[in-house]
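Obj: model holo form, ligand = uracil.
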Amino acid sequence: MYDNLDELRAAALQCQNCGLCATRNNVVFGVGPADAKILLIGEGPGENEDKQGEPFVGRSGQLLDKMLEYAGLSRKKNIYIANMVKCRPPQNRDPAPEEIEACMGWLRNQTAILRPSIIICIGRIAAVSLIRKDFKVTKEHGQFIDKNGTLMMGTFHPAALLRNPVNKPAAMEDLLGAAKKARELGLPV
Ligand code: URA
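Output (holo structure tokens):
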């Protein structure tokens, strides 16, 4: 276990815990201020993220940033963004359970350092891995679930919103709900 994000990042950049290391260009560790109390967790890097080494910088990332901004949240100010797996699964396939398991130590250590009050799971893969294995985003999005003192929420993945914009207003309500909850908790948002 590392006790600061810089050392943890340096270690993660060397990771060979699973086969994804063979095809990656960059380890996509995470981005945001070290004192963020909201942690947003996606699935895994796509092509753009793999090229740039930063999460959510492609088309779905642009949508996510726009929605976050409307809720007063930003990776520059008050929210930390990471993924379940730090390396791109080839052809953007879902990460395999054993890849998620192999990568989980990095996310656990990030969470232990940040000690977030709110965790937002972006999309099914993060929600079923971190909230409950039968979590249904379409039914349970936006609900807060207290897990050992951390409020967990699942919401729609922006890639799914690009395919199916009908869920955009609901996803926006979820992010507004997270920001409202953060204010109620006295967090800096
Ligand atoms: N989708 C994700 O889940 N994460 C990213 O970083 C980019 C796209």
